Amino acid sequence: MRQVILDTETTGLNPATGDRIIEIGCVEMFDRRLTERTFHYYVNPERDIDAGAFAVHGLSREFLSDKPVFGNIVEQLIEFVDGAEIVIHNAAFDLGFLDNEFALLKRPPFRNLAAKITDTLLDARQMFPGKRNSLDALCERFSISNQHRTLHGALLDAQLLAEVYVAMTRGQEDLSIDLIDYTVGADASGHTKALPTDLKALVASDDDIAQHEKILADIAKASKKDSVWSPLNAA
Prior knowledge:
There is one protein chain. By secondary structure, this protein is an alpha/beta fold. It has one domain (2-168): Ribonuclease H-like superfamily/Ribonuclease H (Nucleotidyltransferase, domain 5). Helices cover 37% and strands 16% of the residues. It has helices at residues 51-57, 61-64, 74-81, 91-104, 120-127, 135-141, 154-168, 206-223, 230-234; strands at residues 2-10, 21-30, 33-42, 85-88, 116-119. It is elongated and about 90 Å long. The chain starts with a strand and ends with a helix.
């Protein structure tokens, strides 16, 4: 499975009021492993940067003035993401800006390029309800170092998100369940001693069973209804 982990930086918060993309970063994964392919561009938005946005990413209009406009990188972006599952943190935000950029170029929505879109923010809110689920918070939760992240950057954030995504979706990756300390009972050479073959089986006596039934009856009487395990016990 091919996946593209994507992040953007923008001039502000709302494409409907004229805000534009100023940086886009993508990394590629095959079968949950990062490849060496990345996509990264700074983009000239041809407008000013909001002060609040600048405080987040530190990208000025002067710095972006000699960078390509979005229309000059769109074909490369399409080639990179087309047909992949796209993974984004807070997908509604980035997709809103990307769809807007494509609309300005009179192209179909960007989201149509994806085989599937995964929003790690929505997934994190389901996994950790009531907790902070920003990218920084998830890095901390999964012990992923982001000490080098003093400002937001699209490519760096995409790389961090790739690590977070793998950590969030990591299930059992081995058919063995190695929870036993096999050194317990080992001899001096480290070889495990054979288990004894004369283990004694203990079976409940009729008196044990009668006492058990009495306890169940007392519980049912006190709660004024049968216990949930009564049908199983009867069976």
